[in-house]
C-alpha cells in the first residue's frame, strides 16, 4: 500500500497544480479588460448645439481627427438646449472612464452666472481636457434691413424697440447684446433661440432686427442674406476686411470671443486625460492648417488641462461683473420660455 500511495501522490500534486493554474487563468481572464489599453472602445463627444452651427462645424473635423489619433471610433452625439446645460448634465451623469466627452463652449463658464438652476460649478464639477479654438462674434442684420451701421442701430434703439437674437440665454451672443447695450447706453430686446442656426435664420427672415453670431455666419453675407455691421474683435478679420470693429464704430469695450474646448466627467483618470489631450493637440496641429476652419473665422488655440482650467477661471471673473451690473440672473425656465417664444415678428 505504501508503494500505491507513492505512485498516486505525483498525480494528486499535479491535479492540485493544474487546478491552481486554471484558477489563475480564470482570474487573469476576468481582470484582463482592466489591463486593456485605453481606448479600446468608441469615444463619444456630446455636442451641446444642433447640427449646422459653429459647434458642429468644429466638432466634425475634430471627431474625424481624434478617430485617427486614438485609433478608435469617435461618435458625435447632439444634445442641444438650455444654453448647453442639457449636454453638461448628461456628462455629469456619465461614467468618468474617458469614453464620454463634451464639446464645451463659452456658455459653459457663463451658464452658472446667469442661471440659478444650472446645477454645476464650472471650476470643480468637470475635468478640463483641452482648449481647442476661439472665434470672434459679429453683429449682423438682414440684407434688406434699413440699419446699415452700428451708429444706425444705436440711433434707432433710442427711439424704437430693437430686437437682437442670440443662440440662447447665457451664451456669449447674449452677453454681447448686454455689453453693446451697456456700452452704447441703449436698450436692446434680447430674443434667445435654441441655437445659433435658428438665431441667424431669424435675422435673415426679418423676425428680429439683428443677431450676434459667430464669424462662420459671414458666409451668409457673401450669399447676400445678411449684412455684417461690426466684429467684436480687436482687429478686422482677414476673411471680412471690409467689416469694421466695434472700436472703429466708437465702442471699444465691445469685445466678445467665443471659445471651444473638450471636457470630461469629474474624476476621469489623469493618465486618460493626458492621452486625450495629447491626441487633441496632434489633431489641432493639422486643423491649424485647414483653410475651411480659418474660412469660418476659427482660430485654433491649444491649452492643456491646467491652462484650460485657468482660462475658465479667467472667463468667470470677466463675465461675473457684467452679469451683476445687468441683472441677468434668471431661472433656467425663464430663458427656455423666452427661447420657445423667440419667433416674434415686429
TrEMBL record:
InterPro entries the record matches: BUG, Bug_dom1
Cleavable signal peptide: 1-36
Annotated keywords: Signal
Pfam family, one: TctC
Similarity remark: Belongs to the UPF0065 (bug) family.
Protein name from the UniProt record: ABC transporter substrate-binding protein
Originating species: Cupriavidus neocaledonicus
Amino acid at each position: 500500500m505504501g508503494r500505491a500511495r507513492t505512485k498516486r501522490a505525483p498525480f494528486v500534486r499535479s491535479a492540485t497544480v493544474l487546478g491552481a493554474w486554471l484558477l489563475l487563468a480564470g482570474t487573469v481572464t476576468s481582470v484582463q479588460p482592466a489591463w486593456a489599453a485605453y481606448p479600446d472602445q468608441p469615444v463619444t463627444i456630446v455636442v451641446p448645439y444642433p447640427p449646422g452651427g459653429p459647434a458642429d462645424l468644429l466638432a466634425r473635423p475634430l471627431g474625424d481627427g481624434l478617430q485617427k489619433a486614438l485609433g478608435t471610433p469617435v461618435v458625435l452625439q447632439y444634445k442641444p438646449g438650455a444654453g448647453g446645460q442639457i449636454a453638461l448634465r448628461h456628462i455629469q451623469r456619465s461614467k468618468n472612464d474617458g469614453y464620454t466627452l463634451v464639446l464645451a463652449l463659452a456658455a459653459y463658464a457663463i451658464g452658472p452666472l446667469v442661471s440659478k438652476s444650472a446645477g454645476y460649478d464650472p471650476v470643480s464639477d468637470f475635468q478640463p481636457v483641452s482648449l481647442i479654438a476661439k472665434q470672434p462674434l459679429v453683429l449682423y442684420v438682414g440684407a434688406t434691413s434699413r440699419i446699415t451701421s452700428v451708429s444706425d442701430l444705436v440711433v434707432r434703439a433710442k427711439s424704437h424697440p430693437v430686437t437682437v437674437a442670440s443662440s440662447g440665454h447665457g451664451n456669449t451672443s447674449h452677453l454681447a447684446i448686454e455689453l453693446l447695450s451697456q456700452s452704447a447706453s441703449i436698450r436692446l430686446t434680447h430674443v434667445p433661440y435654441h441655437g445659433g442656426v435658428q438665431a441667424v435664420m431669424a435675422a435673415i427672415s426679418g423676425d428680429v432686427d439683428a443677431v450676434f453670431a459667430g464669424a462662420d455666419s459671414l458666409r451668409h453675407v457673401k450669399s447676400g442674406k445678411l449684412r455684417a455691421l461690426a466684429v467684436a474683435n480687436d482687429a478686422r478679420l482677414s476673411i471680412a476686411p471690409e467689416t469694421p470693429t466695434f472700436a472703429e464704430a466708437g465702442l471699444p469695450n465691445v469685445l466678445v470671443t467665443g471659445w471651444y474646448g473638450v471636457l470630461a466627467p469629474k474624476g476621469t483618470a489623469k493618465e486618460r486625460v493626458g492621452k486625450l489631450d495629447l491626441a487633441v493637440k496632434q489633431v489641432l496641429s493639422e486643423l491649424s492648417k485647414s483653410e475651411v476652419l480659418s474660412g469660418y473665422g476659427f482660430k485654433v488655440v491649444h491649452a492643456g488641462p491646467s491652462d484650460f482650467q485657468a482660462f475658465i477661471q479667467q472667463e468667470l471673473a470677466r463675465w461675473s461683473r457684467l452679469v451683476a451690473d445687468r441683472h441677468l440672473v434668471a431661472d433656467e425656465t425663464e430663458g427656455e420660455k423666452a427661447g420657445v417664444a423667440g419667433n416674434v415678428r415686429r
